[in-house]
Amino acid sequence: xxxxxxxxxxxxxxxxxxxxxxxxxxxxxxxxxxxxxxxxxxxxxxxxxxxxxxxxxxxxxxxxxxxxxxxxxxxxxxxxxxxxxxxxxxxxxxxxxxxxxxxxxxxxxxxxxxxxxxxxxxxxxxxxxxxxxxxxxxxxxxxxxxxxxxxxxxxxxxxxxxxxxxxxxxxxxxxxxxxxxxxxxxxxxxxxxxxxxxxxxxxxxxxxxxxxxxxxxxxxxxxxxxxxxxxxxxxxxxxxxxxxxxxxxxxxxxxxxxxxxxxxxxxxxxxxxxxxxxxxxxxxxxxxxxxxxxxxxxxxxxxxxxxxxxxxxxxxxxxxxxxxxxxxxxxxxxxxxxxxxxxxxxxxxxxxxxxxxxxxxxxxxxxxxxxxxxxxxxxxxxxxxxxxxxxxxxxxxxxxxxxxxxxxxxxxxxxxxxxxxxxxxxxxxxxxxxxxxxxxxxxxxxxxxxxxxxxxxxxxxxxxxxxxxxxxxxxxxxxxxxxxxxxxxxxxxxxxxxxxxxxxxxxxxxxxxxxxxxxxxxxxxxxxxxxxxxxxxxxxxxxxxxxxxxxxxxxxxxxxxxxxxxxxxxxxxxxxxxxxxxxxxxxxxxxxxxxx
Amino acid sequence: xxxxxxxxxxxxxxxxxxxxxxxxxxxxxxxxxxxxxxxxxxxxxxxxxxxxxxxxxxxxxxxxxxxxxxxxxxxxxxxxxxxxxxxxxxxxxxxxxxxxxxxxxxxxxxxxxxxxxxxxxx
Amino acid sequence: xxxxxxxxxxxxxxxxxxxxxxxxxxxxxxxxxxxxxxxxxxxxxxxxxxxxxxxxxxxxxxxxxxxxxxxxxxxxxxxxxxxxxxxxxxxxxxxxxxxxxxxxxxxxxxxxxxxxxxxxxxxxxxxxxxxxxxxxxxxxxxxxxxxxxxxxxxxxx
Lengths: 596, 122, 157
Fold this sequence. Notes:
CATH architecture of chain B: 3-Layer(aba) Sandwich
Shape of chain B: elongated
Distance between the termini of chain A: 66 Å
Number of strands of chain A: 20
Strand order of the largest sheet of chain B: 2-1-3-4
CATH superfamily of the largest domain in chain A: NADH-ubiquinone oxidoreductase 51kDa subunit
Oligomer: heterotrimer
Structural class of chain A: alpha/beta
Largest sheet of chain B: 4 strands, mixed
Number of helices of chain B: 5
């Protein structure tokens, strides 16, 4: 391979690929070949940069120039100006990276500055389909160290000392999990990786698998050595084709290099792994359901105990960890337990990746130390709420979590604080809501999801969530009664304590937390039949104010002819005919149509 | 993979390939790569700089290109920016001269006056 | 069933898949994933075949297939036509448009055309009321439709 004077990194994450980043990459290759520069400039497909809002993203080194929202047509200018003449194309650079005359490198942009990228360290830096690039950034060094210098007990001790806890939701200490599996009796043991990321809005596992697949292979081999397993399974959603493909490429490369297979590093340690695809069932993210699915059964949870550490896949002791958890392991081995334990809070160590979405400026993926406050994440990294709206609440933990109101925005994020606030860490989805979001509607949305995904095995979850949803539907349609609120709480308690698995036990959280912090909103729906946020369609009506100039645009836009009024006279909405589609609001140039 | 040494050998080679993507705080060498520069041989000069840089594992040095520096008859031209922000312009570069710039100027901190634009203008 | 997916070719791919996975533990899910990809669905005939080959009860396979949302028993058409029947579209004459499409592709609502090309569904409001009436063909959206526009759109597919 020739040495190149410049590297063009094109994001190959799912977000950017769907906005045609691969066509952009092809165009770069085409133009570089035309300009006879294809031997001195290398185009690299890399993993997710995290700032998906600004995609498709292209970063050019050595300058670290950060181009955002690039179109295929823009490539010509980047090549002719930046790559040929060495002049960065200012108007195509990410706007946060240009300050007057000064152009900041990608690492100095606000979105990245507060972050500490541990599990995402290679995403956007290496080509995930080339094993050598992973090796260049210390890849497989940890596996080598473990196999040649450490006993399995020492490996488990380091993980225990580091304080690493499961990143998939529950936050169980990973070292303990490994220890239980190591100590369990069995002639055959397994390690498994849970990549069945199903929370709406969370995509950190996908990004790690797409951007740095080798880290999962290395970590699973380390776990295999620690617990005494020679086989690993990665259970991954079929909805993530790019991730599946890259992981398979990585497994093949690792086998070819002898980093998977027999007698790794000449130490006599054997380890191999296989990918198993999910088939669209959210409940399979639950560990026992996942195990059933790997075995080829319906993905329904099993009662615990026995825990997977004793009876897991094919009733053999199995250590099951989440993608992000694994991604921490090699670095803990290399940098030591103290380094990891030095990041974060007393009981939550290390960093956490969050998928920031909803009403937020910088939608995307970010990684911050545990103990960073919600405010820092939302305002410093996330860039705040767009359109000058007021922050109302943030939903964490997906369908298992809850809504945290503005009053608690200074809370440092860790496992225990979030639980105390009635939410949870979950896999790290973070949906920001502004004043226009109705809390009843949010609760309804998540419950609708749980009802759909409940596997139906146990009654509290199957029937209980359905009844809760019925009540929420009534409330949002103005048919709720004050007794309904008590009934909701009652049902929630029963479902939480009586459900078989985590899905049911946490399903009422979105309702309970919104009831707790925003009870007045529920009461407004029930007592006054009003939706304060103006979001529940059945409870809102459209009115035209005196700002109306009689331009007739709204009248033309209305699909059901519910607006009346003569030219240059004030118009009126017939609230009986109106279907509340909002088409008129979008058309009005004077902002004269309001929801009440 | 039968030993750690084997892994480290792969790493050594691979590192040179990706080194360009890490933050650098050392000197910056800019090569004039406009049509005039390339026509008078800027490309081999750039190659030589990259190669010499790798050979000496000068991790903190950034080598980039720029457009026409303006003195076309003196091409290939390279400019060296040291950490203090001082700029030295070398003209009529060749592969050997480029390697010498790295050895003398970057490594030993001695400006090679006879290659500079100042020397030419005398 | 509209489209004939039970072709010799598909079955030979199925046999290869079964052979490839016969040796591994828990072969059912990988095979079903292959089947879904090859056949576009997991027909009963195929489940029967897998049952015989792997000695897994038919009922168990049926249970697994119907549990996961990615597996379907019947194939969908290459183009899924969604006709919005939300209130706005409905009052703007979505029904005659739906009827017209059904007539052109000779398919009832909720079913797939005989050549397996189209699946016709009536959907809930897709939130494009300003464009009412609206239809979607896979990812493409067509708005402000009149019945006369329908044949032209259908010709594109």
